[in-house]
Amino acid sequence: MTKADEQAALAYGHRLFIRPIAFVTGALSEDTLPITSLPEVAFAGRSNVGKSSLINALVGQRQLARVSNTPGRTQEINFFDLGGRLMLVDLPGYGYAQAPKDKATVWALFIKRFLKGRTQLRRAYVLIDSRHGLKPQDEDIMCMMDESAVNYQIVLTKTDKIKPAELARCRESVAGSAAKHVAAHPVILDTSSVEATGLPELRAALSELALPE
């Protein structure tokens, strides 16, 4: 991609994300999933990975996706309509040790069925805390997406909290693991919701999946 193409992609992403965004619904079961023709992108990650903060930062709103200090609180699949061009889907956090086992099992089954059956799902974004790298639960969700034939891209979060050398080591380790997964996108994105780093690039990537202007 030339520098001009890169700048055009960033500008395109900016135009998409200044559009109004609205909460559509929170689905607790398959029969409550919304019927929509919009292309969808889903955000997945371990509890407390910074998923809600990242979604809020992307759209420039502080309270769109609810941020909780209690990991594992979000139990719904939440849908947000971005200007009638793209649906952002916030999946429940996974891997919280204190969540009841039966509830965690139900969440996992619900997410698995969503991933396999959602024909308008264009891509999933798997968020990884850059301070901790990949955990077994992350590998599990990546395997689930491989099996469901869902293209997904890894996004490192909270990069403002570690040093550049540590970030580089994390990225290298995650890239090595991702290369073993058939549905993983080869490009890993670095982001910080606090410093807004990496957000323009993520918006540009998301805009490629939206309905055209």
Task: Write up what this structure looks like.
- This protein has helices at 3-17, 51-59, 101-117, 136-148, 164-178, 199-207, and strands at 21-27, 40-45, 77-82, 86-90, 121-129, 152-157, 189-190.
- The chain is of the alpha/beta class and 213 residues long.
- It has one domain (3-207): 3-Layer(aba) Sandwich (Rossmann fold).
- The protein has a seven-stranded mixed beta sheet, with helices on both faces.
- Helix 4 (136-148) links the parallel strand 5 (121-129) and strand 6 (152-157).
- The longest helix has 17 residues, at 101-117.
- It is globular and about 45 Å long.
- 36% of the residues are buried.
The CATH class is identified as: Alpha Beta
Report the radius of gyration as a whole number of Å.
Answer: 16 Å
SSE order: HEEHEEHEHEHEH
Number of domains: 1
Q: Give me the count of strands.
A: 7
Largest sheet: 7 strands, mixed
The fraction of residues in strands falls at 15-25%
Number of helices: 6
CATH topology: Rossmann fold
- Principal-axis shape: globular
At the fourth level of CATH, the homologous superfamily is P-loop containing nucleotide triphosphate hydrolases
What's the structural blueprint in terms of helices and strands?
Blueprint: H1 3-17, E1 21-27, E2 40-45, H2 51-59, E3 77-82, E4 86-90, H3 101-117, E5 121-129, H4 136-148, E6 152-157, H5 164-178, E7 189-190, H6 199-207
Parallel strand pairs: 2-4, 2-5, 5-6, 6-7
Antiparallel strand pairs: 1-3, 3-4
Helix pairs in contact: 1-6
